[in-house]
Amino acid sequence: MTKAVTTSADAFVQEVSRLPARTSGTRGRLLFAMDATASREPTWDHACGIQGEMFVAAEALGGLDVRLAFYRGFDEFKVSRWTSDGRELARLMSAVRCLAGRTQIGRLLRYAAEQRRESRIDAVVFVGDCCEEDVDHVGHEAGQLGLLGLPVFVFQEGNDRAASRLFPQIAKLTRGAYCRFDRTSPDELRKLLGAVAAYAAGGRAALLKYSREQGGTAALLTHQVK
Asked: What CATH number is associated with residue 84?
C-alpha cells in the first residue's frame, strides 16, 4: 500500500469513527453505488471481489441489506433489488458490463435522497474514478443528503483531478468519509468496506468491535472511538 493511500485510509477511518450512532434494533440498509462507465472496466471485476467483507462485518450485528446502483452508457441508471447475501450481490455485479458514457453522480445522489426520505437506507458507498458534471450541482445534491442525515462513503480510484477535488467534498457535505484506493491495496479496501457495513448495521459501537477484530487499518478505529 503506497504512503498516499495509507494516509487517505487513516483519515477515512478517523472520519467514520466520528459518525453518530445509528438507531439499534433495525436491519441496516446500504446503497452500494458504482460508476460503470468505460474507464472503470479494467477494475470492475476487482471491485466485485472485495464487497463480500461488508456482509461478513454486518452478519453478527443483525444483518445488512444492500442494493446495487450503477450508471453507464447513455443516460442509463439502474438499481437492483435488495439482497442480504454477499454471493447474490457479487452475482448481480458480475452481470454488469461497463459502457462508455458520462458520469451521473448528481442523479445518483438524488436517488439516494429519495430513498432516505422514505427511510429506506442508512448509508451510501460510492466507488468511482472521475466526474464530468458541474461540481456545484453535484455539491448541491450532496448538501441535500447532509440535511437528511445520510452519510456517503466515497472511494476514489485513481488520481483524476476533478474527482480529487469533488469526492472529498461529497463526503464532507454528507458527513461521511472519503478514501482513495488502487489495485495494490485490496485488503485495506476490503476492511474499510467492512467498517462502513459495521456502522450501517450497528452504529459506532459496532465500528469499535470490528476494528478490534480486524486489526491493520481498521484497528485505528479503536483509538478514535475511545
From this structure: 3.40.50.410
- CA–CA dist 219, 212 (Å, integer): 6
Write down the pTM of the prediction: 0.78
At residue 194 the predicted structure's pLDDT band, cuts being 50, 70 and 90, is: confident
User: Mean pLDDT over residues 115-124, rounded?
Assistant: 88
Domain span at 61: 26-203
Give whole-number Cα distances, 217 to 6, 138, 194, 213, in Å: 8, 30, 11, 11
Amino acid, res. 117: R
How far apart CA 196 and CA 201 sit, in angstroms, is: 9
pLDDT of residue 21: 45
The three-point CA angle 91-96-97 to 5° equals 140
Q: How many domains does the chain have?
A: 1
Higher pLDDT, 139 or 9: 139
Phi-psi map region of 158: left, alpha, beta (phi>0 left; psi -120 to 50 alpha): left
